[in-house]
Amino acid sequence: MSEQSKTRSVSVLGLGPMGQAMVKAFLAAGVEVTVWNRSAAKVDAMVELGAKRADSVAEALAANEVSVLSLTHYAAMYDVLGQAPEALAGKVIANLSSDSPEKARAGAAWVRERGAQFLSGGVMSAGDNIEHPASYIFYSGPKEVFDANAELLRPLSPQEYLGADDGLAQVFYQALLTVFHPWLLAFDQATAMIAKSGHDIAQFVPFAVRSSEAYPYFMEQFSVANQNGGWADLASLKMMVAGAQHIIDASEEVGVDAGFSHLSQQYWRKAVEASEAAGKAVSTYELMRGTD
What's this model's pTM, rounded to 2 decimal places? Predict the structure, then answer.
């Protein structure tokens, strides 16, 4: 295969919203794209934009040296690639699907056992908007495999290569989603509180954005604390319990479900109880981390 075809053509398997965004990004960058998906309608839509159709997984893998997977989870990878395992020999598989680090490591081993190279990726994007300035992709796996294919994958989003551990991209990806998911729930509760109090969510949002500007400061402060056992002060922990109760009261007074705040309060209470039992302050970080 010529150097030009190596660097300017790719197959994309899986055409959900993220897979479609990837196809569009490749095409916009002048990369030739072959697509496969279970649903023919999604393939048709990408073909109309200029992609090439593959009628089977084997055909998609054979079309190019590199294939990008955008699937729901790693179990789907086995289901898809298992349709043509003989076609994997000599190929490069970049799996940008979400799953646990251990499942990524197992998936990498499965692909390599069938003669292909492997990269794991975690797509940190604003929804399926991979062109958003805040979007980027974690990659992990052998450095030489990443280096050889980085230019081809560059149209998708800025790249952050983390290391050789196949699971590392998913460690960082899932850690960031651990922060993001509670934020989504908290924002729903907060805006429900505003609305049920008879006020305008739109009036509230600028203040929420303004307050979020302090988050980097807190992250930096707490990251230092957590590298040293976590932030813990008994009086402050008790204050957090009381503060959580105020949020619960404000929510429930207007009929908003405060289950998320009740859960938060439980962690602060556990830290207070552990601190009192130990005779020294015990942080929520210590409680979550557990013992090595």
Answer: 0.89
